[in-house]
Amino acid sequence: MQKISPFLWFDNQAEEAVTFYTSVFSNSKIGKMTRYGEAGPGPAGTVMVAEFELEGLHFTALNGGPMFKFTEAISMSIDCKDQAEVDYFWSRLSEGGQTSQCGWLKDKFGLSWQVIPEALPRLLGDADAAKAARVMLAMLQMTKIDVARLEAAHAG
């Protein structure tokens, strides 16, 4: 059993979000969905709480109403093995959302994601400070992370 797990508050799109997220990640599954009854407070038959799993991580989604919104203060970070994975997740998760700087985006539900290739922390952590600085400057000019550009900056 996972001791700590993300609990995501949606206005009324929890079921749509769960379906979307599980379509993006191949290693995913939808779990138990609890629906509102006649007593409410949501419309009878709509999802109150939905459980789902992405890449082995358990999540819970709640249709809790419009009181709370997602902010960039919390984000989901995806470790990508290569540019192809970056391109895939970037494309899928940014559909209907907003892209931002340095590999960050908001999906169509307002949840923030970081789409990060394994090369980024490796190149940023180079013991050669000049190489790491060039990588940082290159990254700061990107929206979606471009591994080839990072490696070119690293090489000088």
TrEMBL record:
Superkingdom field: Bacteria
InterPro entries, A to Z: 3_dmu_93_MTrfase (IPR009725), Glyas_Bleomycin-R_OHBP_Dase (IPR029068), PhnB-like (IPR028973)
SUPFAM superfamilies per the UniProt record, alphabetical: Glyoxalase/Bleomycin resistance protein/Dihydroxybiphenyl dioxygenase
Domain PhnB-like: 2-116
Gene3D superfamilies, A to Z: 2,3-Dihydroxybiphenyl 1,2-Dioxygenase, domain 1 (3.10.180.10)
Pfam families: 3-dmu-9_3-mt
Protein's UniProt name: 3-demethylubiquinone-9 3-methyltransferase (Glyoxalase superfamily)
Organism: Aminobacter carboxidus
Taxonomic path: Bacteria, Pseudomonadati, Pseudomonadota, Alphaproteobacteria, Hyphomicrobiales
